[in-house]
Prior knowledge:
Elements: E1 7-17, E2 22-24, E3 28-29, E4 32-37, E5 41-46, E6 49-53, E7 57-61, E8 64-65, E9 69-75, E10 78-86, E11 95-98, H1 104-118, H2 123-140, H3 146-162, H4 170-177, H5 181-192, H6 196-214, H7 219-225, H8 231-242, H9 246-257
Antiparallel strand pairs: 1-10, 2-9, 3-8, 4-7, 4-10, 5-6, 5-9, 7-11
Helix pairs in contact: 1-2, 2-6, 3-4, 3-5, 4-5
Amino acid sequence: MKKDFIITKIDSVLLFRKQKNSEQYPSTLKLNELIFDFSGEYTVYFGDTVLKVLPNTIRFFPCGTVSKYEIERSKLGECIDVFFSSDKPISDVAFTVNAGNNEYVGSLFKKLFSAWNNKNEGYYFKCMSLLYEIFSSIQGNNYLPTKQYLKILPAIDEIERSFLNTSLTNEYLASICGISESCLKRLFKKKFGHSVKKYVIQKKINYACELLMVHRYSINQIAEMCNFSDVYYFSKQFKLQIGISPTEYIKKYKNQHD
Length: 258
């Protein structure tokens, strides 16, 4: 899977409860599909690729034309399907990622589905942020046993609510989890592949992407709104996370919608 793509549009987010043991789909996909299977057992035939799907599996299908797109189900199940487009191909082939017994990615899909269907003010940008977060988790592909994940869940929830708060220290986050700082650092590293600080920065950068797409604020204003120490540090972190500068991001996003 490529790492330098930009999600240009979310078309729909749907919940399916499958009622058929086998289905054949159109061979041309106009949009990318990202799916989380909460239950069921399937065999998917996508072109020359054969995918085995179990509960808690993420599936990705690239847009384009394939010779075959069929699904055979040994057990019926439920899934959330996200249809979206990107500025460049994300992957040339279909693939799956098994989330095991970890509930984090599944919860992101549920939040995405809920935000899309409730359509509260600002919902679209919230959905974009959640989809980026899902891809971040897929690329990291780091999963904790549920027991360990629950230990740091209070910190994850607090960061989700207050990632713009400059007082989110490791000491504070460890205290609300009831664990030591060293344990917090170790489990975050295992789950996300990097430090708590970098996880918070990723949240800020995702939020900055939403603000840049509004075309209402300057880069200096967004750096301040996201609580970066200065615009130069913000621009450096943005490029590290997204691969391009904030200015380039604005131009690229604008070109996709002109």
